[in-house]
């Protein structure tokens, strides 16, 4: 991996391939750039593929910032694009938390990206609009902080998965036991303090409307996705000027890993369509 110095830390990233079109992949919460390995292997022969470890995750790890936010993660993405001299027409691919980062980028730059692919796309956490003023009374932070301090990130993450499964009756994260195991291993690499800062960034994000976004956008969910999350993805696809929504069978939230060939096929078709415009 390669390092990009920041004012308050170091951002680690990788570049594969030397194609003309840059594909930028932003992973989900408590994962890391390895989550995109099936896509790196598939696309690096024809494109310039960039993955990064978001603050608090993977090799980037802890930074000096007291608080994290989706806006801060997007600042880092912009810094990386500038560092790599990718000024115009990248294709941005975000998974879960990464989809929030891509949405924030599109909000800031409605027409700068060539395209956007949002996997397991979510607008907010929890994925439901609460009445004004009610958020502090239903916040999961007190319970999460207790669990995190007593049992650590993996047990805390597992309890979140159990809660969602109890509500939906589905293996929401992934239908593949090996994918779930790899995700849990990545979560275990995240320090307690960083886990909490990442969770708070998700919880505090106020999603943009995206009604002025003209960037072609593909939203992809797995058929086992939590219904409220999929509903948000459909809302994203309908909000942007040129959006579409696809559901892949036999897959969950980590749809790019559950169905890598199918995800690569629909993503590749989408990216090729951008150059045909």
Automatic annotation (TrEMBL):
Record's InterPro entries? AB_hydrolase_1, AB_hydrolase_fold, AB_hydrolase_sf
Extract one GO molecular function annotation from the record.
Answer: hydrolase activity
AB hydrolase-1 domain residues are 23-265
Task: Report keywords, A-Z.
Answer: Hydrolase
Residues making up the signal peptide according to the UniProt record: none
* Name of the protein described by the UniProt record: Pimeloyl-ACP methyl ester carboxylesterase
Q: Does the keyword rRNA processing apply?
A: no
Please give the superkingdom of this protein's source.
Archaea
The GO cellular component terms are: membrane
Q: What Pfam families has UniProt attached to this entry?
A: Abhydrolase_6
């Amino acid at each position: 991996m390669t390092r990009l110095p920041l004012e308050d830390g170091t951002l680690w990233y990788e570049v594969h391939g030397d194609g003309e079109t840059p594909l930028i992949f932003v992973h989900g919460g408590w994962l890391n750039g390895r989550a995109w390995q099936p896509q790196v292997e598939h696309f690096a022969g024809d494109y310039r593929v960039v993955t990064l470890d978001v603050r608090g995750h993977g090799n980037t790890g802890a930074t000096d910032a007291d608080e994290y936010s989706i806006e801060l993660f997007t600042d880092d993405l912009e810094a990386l694009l500038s560092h790599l001299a990718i000024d115009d027409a990248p294709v941005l691919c975000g998974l879960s938390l990464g989809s929030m980062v891509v949405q924030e980028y599109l909000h800031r730059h409605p027409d700068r990206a060539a395209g956007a692919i949002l996997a397991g796309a979510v607008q907010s956490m929890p994925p439901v609009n609460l009445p004004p003023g009610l958020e502090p009374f239903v916040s999961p932070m007190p319970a999460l902080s207790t669990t995190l301090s007593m049992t650590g990130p993996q047990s805390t993450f597992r309890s979140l998965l159990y809660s969602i499964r109890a509500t939906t009756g589905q293996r929401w994260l992934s239908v593949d036991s090996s994918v779930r195991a790899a995700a849990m291993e990545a979560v275990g690499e995240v320090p307690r303090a960083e886990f909490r800062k990442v969770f708070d960034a998700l919880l505090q994000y106020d999603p943009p409307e995206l009604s002025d976004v003209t960037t072609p956008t593909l939203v992809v969910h797995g058929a086992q996705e939590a219904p409220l999350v999929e509903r948000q993805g459909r809302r994203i696809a309908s909000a942007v000027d040129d959006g579409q929504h696809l559901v892949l069978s036999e897959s969950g939230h980590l749809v790019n890993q559950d169905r890598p060939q199918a995800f690569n096929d629909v993503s590749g078709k989408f990216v090729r369509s951008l150059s045909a415009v």
